[in-house]
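Supplementary Text 2. Reproducibility record for the structural model of the 382-residue chain.

All settings were left at their defaults, and a single model was retained for analysis rather than an ensemble. We include the record here because the model underlies the residue-level annotations in Supplementary Table 4.
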Amino acid sequence: MGVLSGVKIIEMVGLGPGPFCGMLLADLGADVIAVERPAADAGNPRPWELCSRGKRSMVLDVKKPGAVETFLELIDGADALIEGMRPGVMERLGLGPEVCLARRPSLVYGRMTGWGQYGPLSQVAGHDANYVAVSGALWLATQSGQQPDAPPGLLGDVAGGALYLAIGLLAGILRARQDGQGQVVDAAMVDGSAHLLNFAISFLPDHYGGSFEKARPAALGMHWDRPYLCADGEWIVIQAVEPKFYAELIRRLGLDQDERFVNEQRNPAAWATLGDELSVLFKTKSRAEWTRLLEGTDTCFAPVLAPEEAAAHPHNIARDIYKTIDGVLQTAPAPRFSVTPSAELVSVPPRGAHTKDVLAELQINSKRTGDRGQATAVGSPG
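Retained model, structure tokens:
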């Protein structure tokens, strides 16, 4: 069930961005078979378990006799493959792109790494913060003079990595269904997080005077585009960029008779003073009080919520954004489709829950893979 029903993905389970990409595609209806490590090799608890939702899980040790051939039979009917090993590991396992594409010419071979398949750093270990630091994204996301500190995993692993891999795989599948030609998708977090900067770059000439420094958060101290602390120690955020929204904000704050606030929205010389005055004003009420006054208006206002609070917000409840399955808070599939809605969320399958079923589909005797097909795909993360 879902818009990607009929699309089959084989995922060699690795580190987070690959499983997240597989989860996204499974959320949208793809049949994702996750080739996982056995518990003894992978360690407990099971890593990124939530990202296994919606998938079929099998366990296979590609180091054991017959297991590589089993993996290759898996891709015989697949549209795409996801792997997140360090460059060269899949080749050493006998499962590199040349082997897989020779067997399945229409296969889209998705490779998820931090640094990419080539370049001076391609064989170097790293994590999200390292990739977004080198791409320029971490610097641009940090206020001048402050410690660089992006939300863990979001800017590189998810936005610059998993989502770009998903787009690449789907684009490759569309192409392959036209001409039957598969290809390799080299999805690197350093590439994707750099590509994200084009949105900010597009504003440089008109809004930031061509300066990257001025495009950084709160670099200009705009009183109409910043967070504010409330009386209860909680935060709200205002982003009343357009004049009509700014006018609505100061009207609701009772400042529409103050000529400074009315006339100096675009005067940088006034921003610090006006911002200080708003800081004092917003500290006179709690976040809940400001929410009752400003939420639901064209003031471009929002309370800053923790995930647990977000799950209880009326808008998120109305859209059914958050779910609790087996006691675990998680978010619903996105985006949404009018004709082919995604399947309802269910429990995450245990590791290897579908091994026998998948082998049966391939008409493979489990003895061929050793240990009834239960072992591990190995390699160092990229």
